[in-house]
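Tokens as discussed.
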């Protein structure tokens, strides 16, 4: 009798597990539908309010005085001028230090002294990268092939015929 009650309990647990799985699936689907509906509702609200926002922006711009417009334009020009002055300073330092044109954009710093220090460091890196590599053929015991010989002479010499 113990075996029968155990098997009945196992069957009941299996049925509940299947019901729980289907309930979880249904919950996720319902949750997805709920969020999809909310997203559509908020999108519709945004579309309805966009024309009102555009109208508000137009009214705010129209209510500005000429002085406010001039100040905004001056602030924008100041920002551009700061960028141009920084680029000018970078170019002056690069020219003075002899930085190649392709490396000028790598210079960093907000003052001329910082740019000069960075230029010195960059020159050190460029100089170490441009050092001549030694000819390793001589160290490996290979002979130098004279430039006036052509490929036919070289092949004959390799074959032992010339």
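Sequence:
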């Amino acid at each position: 009798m113990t075996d029968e009650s155990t098997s009945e309990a196992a069957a009941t647990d299996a049925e509940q597990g299947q019901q729980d799985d289907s309930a979880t699936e249904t919950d996720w689907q319902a949750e997805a539908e709920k969020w999809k509906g909310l997203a559509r509702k908020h999108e519709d609200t945004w579309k309805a309010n966009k024309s009102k926002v555009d109208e508000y922006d137009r009214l705010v711009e129209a209510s500005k005085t000429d002085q406010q417009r001039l100040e905004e334009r001056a602030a924008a020009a100041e920002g551009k001028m700061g960028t141009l002055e920084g680029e000018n300073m970078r170019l002056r330092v690069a020219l003075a230090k002899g930085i190649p044109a392709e490396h000028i954009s790598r210079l960093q710093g907000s003052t001329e002294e910082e740019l000069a220090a960075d230029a010195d460091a960059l020159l050190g890196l460029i100089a170490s990268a441009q050092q001549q590599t030694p000819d390793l053929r001589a160290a490996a015991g290979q002979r130098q092939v004279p430039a006036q010989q052509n490929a036919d002479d070289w092949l004959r010499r390799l074959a032992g015929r010339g």
